[in-house]
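Appendix B. Raw example, untouched.
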Amino acid sequence: MVSTPGSLKQLSNSGVIAESYLSPSTTGLINLDVPSIQRFKGIADIIAPPASLDDLDINQGMVVDILLRLAYNEGEIVATHAEEVVKLPYRLIDDLLAWMQQEHLLEVSKAVGSLGRRGYVYNLTDAGSARAKEAFERTQYVGPAPVPLEKYSQSVLMQATQHKLSRADVQRALNHLILPQDFDRKIGPAVNAGTSIFIYGPPGNGKTTIAEAIAGLLGGIDPVWIPYAVTVGGAIIQIFDSLIHKLSKEERGSADKRWGLFKRPSVMVGGELTMEHLDLRYEPVAKFYEAPLQMKANTGMFLIDDFGRQQISPSQLLNRWIVPLETEIDFMRLTSGQTFEIPFKQLLVFSTNLDPDDLVDGAFLRRIQLKVGVFGPDEKMFYQIFANQAQVLGFPEIDRASFLYLLNEWYRNTGKPLQSVHPRDILKAVKVLCEYSGEPLHMSPKLIQEACEGYFVKAKDGRIL
């Protein structure tokens, strides 16, 4: 697809973002004296609240439709409640309700207290009910007024490059794991680059835990501004997902309430991933769109765990994402046939315990910036993990004979490879056995044997699985 004037590619390369279509005067409408706004150059212009209906960045009819649907659903409408739902300033809501009253779509049924217009309770007229039904035909969306797609795209480009993590930051995030020396140097550069990581290796050695630690790292820095919904081509796309977007407690100043200040999002999917999750999902009854997962993950992290075990094949995913991985731009299509661009700007993490040679070709791997192998521990690390888990689970002491029995009988003598997850699982089984028999918590070779016999499976050829 060829880049057109004003396209994301041109915009991203220009180094000039907000100035391309916003008036510099908009910054006067917003309090700049809060870190969440100062942190990202140009963001103040994007998230400045509209001062009047003339400054509204979307079609007024779209907001009127939301107000009509709200009044129809709830039987009445009050300006202060509408302000909470639609997330536009009270002055704009009041002006719209007054216009709707003038057009005989609403009528004042009562006034509460001495609040003036704030106390007005409106009901739909017959004409208003008819207009509301027409509005429902277009979409049933009732929620925060959307922002233009262009503003969303520009905000992602401004915020995608997060604060650079120091080596100490990464080491602290991984310090609860027993990992090879300098392992942080394999992860930190990729996190700072905000591009992509391919984590591979046999199961049970902490790949998912490492990815979750990365998510915690990102979630703890630089909260970002994300709109609840965007509009393009007359359609509404809902971005906000309560399972992904967690509100930050940082001061948000007087920013447009259609924008939430969230911790950097982390999207984690496994075998349930389908191709539908990566495209706009149109709900034919509600008649609006839900953003794809990669759009929800923008400015944060997208982890595909157990890569290769999804309901879509690696080659299908490769074909879907090979262009976004190269250009950092993704393409979406509405049911109307209209196509548009969105930024593809998140830390993309693939985690797999399958052989990379069996999963993807060189073209895919070439587009992933960093490959990190996570393999089983050596005996020294295995003991450190064993000791660490014993302390976590409350064992009063580490019985050396028990550890040597585990190491000799179940690994050295059988040829079974050491896995980082085994000490935790085996010691948990020992703890359950002690609790069941009413004994004080302790470990012994006999208890280790009983736990291992219940934990491992013997194959027909005698191998320990």
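End of appendix B.
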